[in-house]
Design goal:
The complex is a heterodimer. Chain A is an alpha/beta fold. Helix content of chain A is 44%, strand content 16%. In chain A, helix 7 links the parallel strand 6 (162-164) and strand 7 (184-187). Chain B has helices spanning 22-31, 43-46, 51-62, 107-115, 143-152, 165-171, 189-194, 213-221, 227-242, 247-251, and strands spanning 3-9, 36-41, 68-70, 89-92, 119-123, 158-161, 177-180, 202-203. Chain B has a 5-stranded parallel beta sheet with strand order 4-5-6-7-8, covered by helices on one side. In chain B, strands 1-2-3 form a 3-stranded parallel beta sheet. Classes of the chains: A alpha/beta, B alpha/beta.
């Protein structure tokens, strides 16, 4: 079964070893979301640009394997954000926007980015976690987005395609919070290969709204086969697995 | 040959398990090539005053299941020291039973465990702390506390269950501490782990049914390390700790 990995990061300019390994595991494409932890959570404009430079470099160096999303800090200036989207998406072919923990998805500054994403018809992949347990502001400058925040964004932008990251981080409640918003998809990454959550998500929102993501942070991060097996082992139909592993991401990544 | 040192039976109040009977657990293990497993009752976690009753209940339930062997839980606060006399291995759960390993009141008990060369499994956690119920957050035992305990009782062979990568890398540097792999995840988990600690320190543990067994097997299958290291992790290390090939393996015809 062919696999597209929608949630990956790297710190390295040389990814050949990763690509060879991933291909052996039937991963045909990986989506780079940037080295988003390099400068903590509130990156300045130069730092954001540097993060995206690496993503652009890698999508050009390995064009048949990598897609990439443009990383943004919504707390940067509106002008910079517009220019960076223009540079990364329009001029350099990145396929979407990645938002992490600089602010929460329900913040007005994110709405401005959402407007542009709708205009360009590109998805926004937003970090999310269960803040009932970890808290909204667990460390300075870190603003954790809860699935409730994703729901607010989805409600305000029904034409925006949102990928809520970390199914196993938002857990069962995360699915419940976003299930009424058809424009929200979720990726499978986020924690250990916990049983039952993928099955629950397929049952509640359908496999058409779930994407495989490993959260590998090459040469660190998650173990790709461990994350793949967590979907393969789920008690769901073969067509659901095909949707999760490949078809949904194929539909979303424009350059594919 | 694979021996799984970390399997659970019972109800977990915060998550519903599909694999919820002894029969289903054994079938799952068999299907995934696990020859023998050490299993404990989850009732011991919360009803901490009646752990012996749950141990007895599980002995009865597994008596006709040749792949399953009881790993009895003890709570030092309510443990009858004489009752551990004939045990070869026990599990303790300091986080959920809220005690310090270095509480002087337990010295007699641990001295006995030391003298009798009983294997001591320490449950570090059951779930990622970020996934805990917001009203039920349980801290893992402190690493310094475990270090001190291991130094105080150098003859006790300690096996950590569900430790994170960084935790076990730190703790397994101490001669009498070993660990399972259930919560260890990293890009190329086993290969990365063996760069930090020798294979002699690692045992296979799946943490079934919390985590997908298939994902845990994948850690070994895609390990990219020497076959002899895989054998150590899969069963040889456990056999050595047990003091030879366990009799229950001999009875069923396993050849070393």
């Amino acid at each position: 079964m062919k696999i597209i990995d929608i949630h990956t990061h790297t710190t390295s300019e040389d990814c050949k070893e990763w690509i060879d390994y991933a291909k052996k595991l039937d991963v045909v494409m990986s989506c780079l979301l940037g080295d988003v932890l390099k400068y903590s959570y509130n990156q300045n404009e130069n730092q954001v640009r540097e993060i995206n430079d690496l993503t652009i470099l890698l999508t050009k160096k390995y064009p048949s394997f990598f897609a990439g999303f443009c990383y943004l800090n919504p707390r940067n200036s509106k002008r910079f954000i517009q220019d960076e989207i223009e540079r990364c998406v329009v001029k350099n072919g990145l396929s979407g926007i990645k938002l992490e923990a600089s602010t929460v998805a329900s913040d007005k500054s994110v709405f401005e980015i959402a407007d542009i994403a709708v205009e360009l018809d590109i998805p926004v992949l937003h970090h999310a976690f269960n803040t009932f347990t970890i808290g909204k502001n667990p460390s300075p400058s870190c603003y954790q987005t809860d699935p409730c925040d994703i729901a607010v964004l989805a409600k305000n932008f029904p034409k925006l395609k949102i990928i809520m990251a970390h199914l196993r981080g938002v857990d069962i409640r995360g699915i419940i919070e976003v299930k009424d918003y058809d424009n929200v998809l979720v990726d499978t990454s986020g924690a250990q290969p916990i049983t039952g959550i993928i099955e629950y998500a397929v049952k509640k929102i359908g496999s058409e709204r779930i994407l495989f993501g490993s959260d590998v942070y090459y040469p660190y991060g998650r173990d790709i086969p461990v994350q793949i097996k967590a979907v393969e082992a789920a008690k769901i139909k073969a067509k659901d697995k095909d949707n999760i592993f490949f078809k949904n991401a194929e539909r979303i990544l424009r350059k594919w | 040959m694979v021996i799984d040192v970390n399997v659970n039976y019972g109800i977990w109040p915060f998550r519903r398990f599909e694999i919820n009977t002894v029969k289903k657990i054994e079938e799952k293990l068999k299907k995934n090539g696990i020859d023998y497993a050490f299993i404990s009752h989850l009732g011991c976690v919360f009803n901490f005053q009646e752990v012996e009753e749950y141990n007895k209940e599980l002995i009865e339930k597994i008596k006709n299941h040749r792949r399953l062997n009881l790993l009895p839980v003890i709570n030092p606060k309510v443990c009858d020291i004489e009752e551990i006399e004939n045990l070869k291995a026990i599990k303790i759960i300091p986080g959920y039973h809220f005690y310090s390993l270095n509480d002087r009141n337990f010295n007699t008990l641990f001295k006995k465990i030391n003298d009798k060369k009983i294997l001591l499994f320490i449950q570090m956690r059951y779930e990622d702390e970020r996934s805990h119920h917001p009203l039920f957050k349980v801290k893992p035992p402190a690493l310094e506390e475990i270090k001190q305990f291991a130094l105080n009782f150098p003859e006790i062979r300690i096996i950590l269950l569900c430790g994170y990568f960084n935790e076990i890398v730190q703790l397994c540097k101490i001669e009498n501490i070993y660990s399972d792999i259930s919560f260890v995840e990293h890009y190329k988990t086993i290969k990365s782990l063996l760069c930090k600690i020798p294979a002699d320190k690692i045992l296979f543990g799946s943490h079934t049914p919390f985590l997908y067994l298939e994902s845990q097997i994948a850690k070994i299958k895609y390990a990219e390390v020497k076959e002899e290291e895989i054998e150590k992790i899969s069963f040889k290390n456990f056999s050595l700790l047990w003091g030879g090939i366990p009799s229950f393996l001999l009875k069923t015809g396993w050849r070393s």
